[in-house]
Every structure is written in structure tokens, then in C-alpha cells.
Design a protein that fits this description.
The complex is a heterodimer. Chain A is an alpha+beta fold. In chain A, helix 2 crosses helix 15 and helix 15 runs antiparallel to helix 16. Chain A contains 17 helices and ten strands. In chain B, about 35% of the residues lie in helices and about 25% in strands. Chain B has a domain of about 55 residues. The chains are: A alpha+beta, B alpha/beta.
């Protein structure tokens, strides 16, 4: 019986192709909206969670020296970066703190990098073997140097893609020699990163850099937390650890508030009499906030934002996903409205169809069709319309997702569940909006239907 | 069924239509018994209420008051599903306007009653039975034709094949020859007469033409919603004999 209803529906729908097409179109748009909504929702969620996971939001920077090292009274930030208070051992110790994923000692200096006649003045970064993972660099050519190269202080270098372009153009530099500060280095890889500054650097083992600069200390330690929310706690642990290791004192550290800021404090804010840190610990959040600011202004800002330490990246992720769910809610509203409009279109067409075919209904009833036979026939017709709409809508939704991803750069991800759900919603809309016309058809009195002109 | 239980028995049947402020009495307390195997023709001018009677007999319409017993059962007590089954199994309809589904082939039109029967019938069997019914009315070669490709007589024969597909015990015909020329009318009457003779089908035929009424075995005259006469037809016309005397038909347009 269902097969017969399908056949009849197919025939009826073929009879007026334009009308059928327009009714299907309404549904198509609705389903496409639903699918696009899901695609964007899923995509946004995935991008938020990958942001949270990515190195960028979990980094902690430990630098040698302190802004206030010159004395609290003078308020002159001195010594940052140029101090010799940090040693490679400190990095190893930090690596043992729980929740720390990667640690990399850094020695940086600016010099020139040369290939033949081409000479570029740039930043050379000495780093450890996990540094590339900390920044999630992708290697377009070659690879990052291994731990062995760091141990042996080998003259190897990886180039940022911008620097590679300047030196080699489109050529593959892997295996070639470059001169850094008149020393020959072998290029082992080219990396790509969204950070334009990093993209213009040359990275060598920090041990090699130490030799070049002639120092046994390091300037900085880059620490990656396992989880974004842990950065604050780890910075505090680092501070405690380094104060102990550097024999500054054994007093308990100050409240989290200023500890997370890496020892930044306004004069008088700290407890007096305590030996100042000979290092600076900064989470990426505070670093981002004060980037480019005059150091004393930065210090003032951080000291006056007691909530800063709580604004960890997990909270930022929360804000992002709240924004995402606002967008999803908006899209859901649009999708619902489109579906209702599409459904009303189907209902309208079905009512017209029932009126047009009143005589046919009368004939079928006279021959023995029951009310439910007529109901089923028109319901199947309505659901067929919406199912076609569903299929086309899924196709359109896929296209929309591709276009949104490519043109607007928003992440969009279409899952099987989303497709199934969109199709299911289409079917349900057909049943919902097809029911009234179908019921009306089935309730017609046989003789009135037969007499209808 | 015992012979003394009439196939159709109506008691004090009335039907009143409300047309604005005016109440139109289509049937005024009509009582009638029809026995199995009768060929009853109901004759009367238009508006006499004979079509209304026919619709009630065919379970397409309900009376305002009175009772209708079909095979001894009170139809007003049946559910819609049961009434639908009665229309499907027990009653065959032939209408003046044929009432075939347009844009649907003759074969598919004839198949329809099997679609709505209480027991499912396979597609192959439906097709075979519909084909046999079409052949029985001489239209086997035109099974694929749509109603608009068939002449009036052919359409009515398709309608008859459809009406007979479930072997109903009652055939109700409402002005079946109203839209047909005289020769085709006689052909249709021939089919009816042989159905009564060969299958013992009870036929109720409605017409406003006394000529057509004369083919029945019992003639009931109707006027203003009441029966004015009800008598056995002693001077019955036989379609078979008349057909033989009529000149050969012009080739029917296909």
C-alpha cells in the first residue's frame, strides 16, 4: 500500500513540475540552513578546542633579570634579558614540574645571515629540540633539528619561511650552507608559522648559540603547559622553584595575584624586605596584554588588574565558545524560520493539490478507499516533497559550507550526524505540515468530493 | 443468504438538504425492498430524488432519517472503515460521467478496487485480474489508453470493468447511458442484462428515460421524493436482440 502511495505521489508531483519544484526549493533552503548551522557550529567548536590545545595559549616565558632589579625606588626596569641568572639546569628543573609539557632554553641575538652575496640582518634564536612543537610550526621543507644536534652544539639551522624567501627565493635551501656571523651552518629545514616575526628568524641549537655568544647562561626559558588552565599555577611553581634554586630566600611567595604576573609589581605593592626575583615569569595572557607598552605602564596595568591571573586561556576559550553558541543560536533561529517557511510552502501546495483533486478523492472513496488510505496518500506526497527538499538541501548545505570555509575563512565541518539530522528534520517537517491537508482530504464526504466540479 | 431477506431494504428514508433558508426534501419517507438478482430501474425526472436514493444505497451519503439494511445489516451502524469495505467489496458503481481517474491508464483505473481491498493483492495479480476484466468488456487491446484517448462508450466500459472487478453483489448505475449515443447505450444495457443473467448480480439503474428503464425487470417511478409506482416490467426490452438489428457501428475513434 505504501508503495502504491509512493507511485501515486510521484505521478501527482510530476504533473505540475514547476509547482513541485518551488515547494521543494523552500524546503531545500530550510534544510541547507540547518546543515550549514550544524557545520558552522561544529567547526567553531573544533577550532575553539584546537585553539585551546595549541601552543599559543599555554606558553609561559621565564626571562633572566627583572624589571625592578635596579631597585624599587628608582623604578628603572633594568637587567631584563641581559642578566646571566638563568642556567640550562633551571630549564631542566622546570621540565620536572608537573603539568609542564615542553621546556626550551633560549639564547637570542641579532646578527646577519648570509647566503653567497645575499646578507640579511635578523634575529637568531638558540633553542632546544622541542621548540618547534611549542609553537606548532609546520615544516614545508626538511625538519627541525633533533636533540642530538643540541647536545653536540652542531652548526645546523632551520629558517623561517620569510627569511628563506629573502635568502633563497623559491629554492629549496635544505642541505645548503648559510653563513651566520661568518660561521657556516647547514640548513636542515624551513618552517611556516602565522607569526610574522618568527617567520623571519633563523633557529639554531641554543648550545651552538651559547658558543657563539660565549656564555654558559641562557636568556630565556620557554615553557609549555600541558593544559591551558594550568599556566597560572605553573608560573607560580616556577617562581618558587627558581627562587629556591637561586637562593633568593625561602619565604613563601606572594599571593597568586602578582606571582602570575612574573614578579611585576608597583612599588610598595610587594612585601618589603624581600629579595627581588632575578628572573621574570610571564604567562602568554599577560604578555599579550602588555605587548608594546612602556614597561612601567605595563607594570601598572598588570598590578591594577587583580583578575588577570584568573583570565587564563581556558576562560578565553569559554568566551570563545559562548560567542560560538550565540552564533549557533542565531543560525538555529534562521534555520527554524526557513524550515517553517518551507513547511508552510508545502502545506500550501498540498492544500491546493487536495482541492484540485477533490474529484479524484471522491472516486477513490467510492471505490472503497478508507479515510486512512487517503490520509496516507497525501502524507506520502507531502513527505516526498520535503524529502526531495532534504536531499537538495543537503547538497546545497555542503556547497554553502565549502563556500563559507573558502571565502569567509570560517571553519565548517559537516558530520554524518548533521546530515542525518537535517534529513530527519526535513521528513518531520513534511509530516507536520502535510498532516493538516492530508487530514482534510481524508475527512471529505465521499459524495461531496464526487460532486465537486 | 435466505431468499426472503432482501439484499436492499430501506425503511422510511428521508433526506433533506438545507439550501440557505429553504429546506429541499429530496426523499420523503421512502420504503423499498429489493431482492437478490433483480434488475431494478428507477425512473423519474431530474430533481425527483432518484440520484439521492442511489447515493444512499451506495453508502456514499447518509439519510437524514430512516434506516437502510444491506444484507440485513443496518448500514448506519457501520464505521467508516466498514462502509469503505462495503463499497469496495459489495457494491460496484457506474456513473453518468464515468468518473475515471484522468492521466491514468485504463488498466490502472480498473485495478483501483484491488488497491483498497481489505486483503492485499500482489501487483502481478492485480494486473492480471484487471486485464481479464478489460478483455471481458472488449477493451483488452486498449489497456494503456488514458480516458481522454477513449470514446464515451469505451470509457463507460472501463468503468463497468472497474465496478465488477471485486465481483460485487450489487451494481449501482446512475444514468449510465446519459452521455452515450443510442447504439452504445444498447451495448451497455446488454452488458447489464447479461450480468444479471449470468452472474445473478442485483442491479439498480437510475435513468430519466423510460426507454432505458424498459430494460429492467422491475420499474420504479419517482417524483418529488416519493415512489409513484413500482411494478414488474412485463414488456422487457432485450438489448442482445436489438443490437443484432441495429446497423453496424461506425468505427469508434480510438
Amino acid at each position: 500500500m505504501l508503495g502504491t502511495s509512493l507511485k501515486i505521489a510521484q505521478k501527482a508531483l510530476k504533473r505540475n513540475k514547476l509547482r513541485t519544484g518551488l515547494a521543494v526549493l523552500g524546503m531545500t533552503i530550510g534544510v541547507a540552513a540547518v546543515l550549514t548551522m550544524f557545520a558552522l557550529g561544529t567547526g567553531a567548536q573544533q577550532s575553539v578546542s584546537s585553539d585551546v590545545k595549541s601552543a599559543g595559549t599555554t606558553l609561559i616565558f621565564v626571562r633572566a633579570g627583572n624589571f625592578t632589579r635596579g631597585g624599587e625606588e628608582s623604578r628603572i626596569p633594568t637587567g631584563l634579558g641581559s642578566a646571566t641568572s638563568l642556567m640550562p639546569d633551571d630549564a631542566d628543573a622546570i621540565a620536572r614540574i608537573s603539568g609542564v609539557k615542553y621546556v626550551s632554553a633560549n639564547v637570542k641575538y641579532r646578527t646577519w645571515v648570509e647566503d653567497g652575496g645575499q646578507r640579511e640582518y635578523t634575529q637568531v634564536v638558540g633553542a632546544d629540540s622541542d621548540y618547534a612543537k611549542q609553537y606548532d610550526w609546520s615544516f614545508v621543507k626538511g625538519r627541525y633539528f633533533r636533540h642530538g644536534a643540541v647536545e653536540d652544539a652542531e652548526p645546523v639551522v632551520v629558517l623561517g619561511s620569510t627569511l628563506r624567501d629573502k635568502l633563497f627565493g623559491d629554492e629549496n635551501p635544505v642541505g645548503k650552507q648559510v653563513q651566520i656571523h661568518n660561521q657556516p651552518y647547514k640548513v636542515v629545514g624551513v618552517f611556516e608559522t602565522a607569526d610574522e616575526d618568527q617567520s623571519d628568524t633563523a633557529v639554531i641549537p641554543y648550545t651552538t648559540a651559547q658558543k657563539t655568544v660565549g656564555t654558559s647562561s641562557i636568556q630565556m626559558i620557554t615553557v609549555s603547559a600541558e593544559q591551558a588552565g594550568d599556566a597560572t599555577r605553573i608560573s607560580q611553581d616556577i617562581r618558587t622553584l627558581l627562587r629556591t634554586r637561586h637562593h633568593l630566600d625561602n619565604q613563601p611567595v606572594q599571593p597568586a595575584g602578582s606571582a602570575a604576573l612574573g614578579g611585576l609589581q608597583m612599588p610598595g605593592a610587594g612585601s618589603g624586605g624581600e629579595t627581588p626575583d632575578d628572573f621574570t615569569v610571564k604567562t602568554q595572557a599577560s604578555e599579550a596584554l602588555t605587548k608594546g607598552l612602556n614597561t612601567s605602564v605595563a607594570a601598572f596595568i598588570l598590578a591594577n588588574m587583580p583578575q588577570m591571573d584568573q583570565t587564563n586561556s581556558q576562560e578565553m576559550a569559554g568566551t570563545l565558545s559562548r560567542a560560538g553558541s550565540t552564533m549557533t543560536a542565531l543560525l538555529a533561529a534562521i534555520a527554524t524560520i526557513s524550515l517553517i517557511v518551507g513547511g508552510i510552502g508545502i502545506m500550501n501546495i498540498m492544500l491546493v493539490s487536495v482541492t484540485e483533486r477533490t474529484r479524484e478523492i471522491g472516486i477513490r472513496r467510492a471505490i472503497g478507499a478508507r479515510q486512512r488510505d487517503v490520509l496516507q496518500q497525501f502524507l506520502v506526497e507531502a513527505v516526498s516533497l520535503s524529502a526531495f527538499g532534504g536531499v537538495f538541501g543537503i547538497v546545497l548545505g555542503f556547497l554553502a559550507a565549502v563556500v563559507i570555509t573558502q571565502v569567509l575563512g570560517w571553519p565548517a565541518e559537516i558530520s554524518v550526524t548533521a546530515v542525518a539530522l537535517a534529513f530527519g528534520i526535513a521528513g518531520l517537517t513534511g509530516v507536520f505540515f502535510g498532516f493538516y491537508p492530508a487530514r482534510r482530504a481524508s475527512r471529505l464526504s465521499p459524495i461531496d468530493a464526487l460532486r465537486y466540479e | 443468504m435466505t431468499p426472503n431477506v432482501p439484499v436492499i431494504s430501506i425503511k422510511k428514508l428521508t433526506k433533506t438538504y438545507q439550501m440557505g433558508d429553504v429546506a429541499v426534501h429530496a426523499l420523503r419517507s421512502v420504503s423499498l425492498d429489493i431482492q437478490a438478482g433483480e434488475f431494478v430501474t428507477v425512473v423519474g425526472p431530474s430533481g425527483s430524488g432518484k440520484s439521492t436514493l442511489m447515493h444512499i444505497l451506495g453508502c456514499l451519503d447518509q439519510p437524514t432519517s430512516g434506516q437502510y439494511f444491506l444484507d440485513g445489516k443496518d448500514v448506519s451502524r457501520l464505521s467508516d472503515d466498514e462502509v469503505s469495505t462495503v463499497r469496495n467489496k459489495k457494491i460496484g458503481f457506474v456513473f453518468q460521467g464515468f468518473n475515471l481517474l484522468t492521466r491514468t491508464s485504463a488498466l490502472e483505473n480498473v485495478e483501483l478496487p484491488l488497491l483498497y481491498g481489505p486483503d492485499p493483492v500482489s501487483a502481478t495479480e492485480r494486473r492480471a485480474r484487471a486485464m481479464a476484466a478489460l478483455e471481458a468488456v472488449g477493451l483488452g487491446s486498449r489497456y494503456e489508453h488514458h480516458p481522454n484517448q477513449l470514446s464515451g462508450g469505451q470509457q463507460q466500459r472501463v468503468a463497468i470493468a472497474r465496478a465488477l472487478l471485486n465481483n460485487p453483489s450489487i451494481l449501482l448505475a446512475d444514468e449510465p447511458t446519459g452521455n452515450l449515443d443510442s447504439r452504445t447505450s444498447v451495448e451497455v444495457m446488454d452488458i447489464f442484462q447479461s450480468l444479471k443473467k449470468e452472474r445473478g448480480i442485483t442491479i439498480v439503474l437510475i435513468t430519466h428515460e423510460p426507454d432505458v428503464a424498459a430494460y429492467g425487470s422491475r420499474i420504479i417511478s419517482f417524483r418529488d421524493g416519493v415512489i409513484t409506482s413500482d411494478e414488474l416490467n412485463t414488456r422487457r426490452r432485450t438489448a442482445r436482440g436489438e443490437l443484432a438489428e441495429l446497423p453496424e457501428p461506425l468505427e469508434e475513434s480510438a
